Amino acid sequence: MRRLLRRFIRFLLYLILAVVVAVVGLLVWLTIAEYRPADVENVTVTAGARHDTAQTGKLYKIVTLNVGYGGLDRTQDFFMDGGTHVRPDQKIEVEDNLSGLLSALSLQNADICYLQETDVSSRRSYWINETDYFTRGLSMGSAFAYNFRCPFIPYPWPPIGKVESGITTLNNLAVTSATRESLPVPFSWPVRVANLKRCLLVERLPVLGSQKELVLVNLHLEAYSSDEGRKAQMEQLRNLLQTELAKGNYVLAGGDFNQDFPGAMEKYPLPANPYWVPGQLTNDDLPVGFSYAYDISVPTCRALDKAYDGNRNSLTAYVIDGFIVSSNIKVNSVETVDLNFRNTDHQPVAMEFTLQ
Predict the structure, then answer these.
(1) pTM of structure
(2) Do residues 6 and 150 share a domain?
């Protein structure tokens, strides 16, 4: 009996040792392989079927949409928001979501599209290159910047696995250059090694008949950090906006802020003890010479603690998608396109604008 007990204890010790070695080995590998982008990196810009030169006095249309990597339609929940899932069970579900989103974007007939959470090689989206999918489907020029790049994410269970994802700007206007500009990372080691490295995707467009540029800033800010992390990213955005306006440029930033725009919390109050609470944008976050452009009439994002049954009355909702524009840009209209969260947990926000 004692011999059996000793063997059992020895087995447990070996098992514990094997688990420790595996965990340490995984952490070492992820640390070595960690994505460490430079502060500023040049991004390749692909020209589309059209590449018109931006000009003053002309009406343009821009749309921003977080596509949720094609995996967050109304039937899905998400483990980081209180749900249990990471991806749809079948590839065809992702394909159907992408098809629906492409159709919705096509109907907008926009000159510029800001897209967030576009996977290019990820297990969670069945290895579909979504940036290429939207670029080809809309026949627009494109630029892509990574904000999530990890060879293996070991959580939850089953694990997420490999993720290569980021933000994509599609354009029918001529672009002279694009850069990926790193945002502060609010996480420390070891959480940092398998987490997002968020950024700003900055495109520069010449404006006909002037030395000015139209500066487009696509963004997807932090969702799960402390307020300090969000503030640090907003401060960097603020500095960029100020610098470009001081040069006399036109500046248009937009995307998924992961922060409610002013008035959203009052219109869409959160339930008691919500799993995720967005940050709150205020006018103090704006540099002098800038304003928000957003539509509060319908929500732009839903909570992912559970699947969506179509009942707005019981929906936890936010208005976290929109734009910041410089004072030399006239906002002619801004509208949230109500798709009732059919193919993603976000809704498109469309804005018509004129360079003055």
Answers:
(1) 0.95
(2) no
